[in-house]
Design a protein that fits this description.
This protein is an alpha+beta fold. Helix content is 19%, strand content 31%.
């Protein structure tokens, strides 16, 4: 599975990852069993990982960095897309519209983006 790190704590070696299938978020906790040489995960990093589901929680294991800071503004854009506490409540219906946050506008382009996009596309 591929995903984007939304939040991480390098001291505790934990992270929250938005998954490519747009299902529930995946939680990574390195704990004491993970190799200390594991790459640090930072918000905005594109990662590949193994996914397990246990008791209503998705866990990411064996994370591998695909590209650093690939989506550096994604967490901020998601936070800004959430309704504010003073906003009127809305209900979901067939006619309700969704807020779409395109990943391409949340990422910083680099010369190697085409190569990275090809790698991600091939893995999907």
């Amino acid at each position: 599975m591929f995903g984007v790190v939304l939040w991480s704590d390098s001291a505790d070696r934990k992270a929250v990852i938005w998954c490519e299938d747009h299902g529930d978020l995946a939680y990574f906790n390195a704990g004491d069993d993970t190799d200390l040489s594991m790459v640090a995960l930072d918000a905005g990093d594109l990662v590949q990982f193994d996914l397990t589901e246990e008791a209503e929680m998705r866990r990411a294991t064996n994370p591998r960095l695909v590209a650093e800071e690939q989506f550096p503004t994604l967490a901020h854009r998601l936070q800004n897309a959430l309704p504010t506490p003073d906003a009127p409540a809305t209900s979901c219906s067939r006619n309700a519209s969704a807020i779409i946050i395109p990943l391409d506008s949340a990422r910083r382009r680099s010369k190697s983006d085409d190569r990275k996009d090809a790698l991600v596309g091939a893995a999907l």
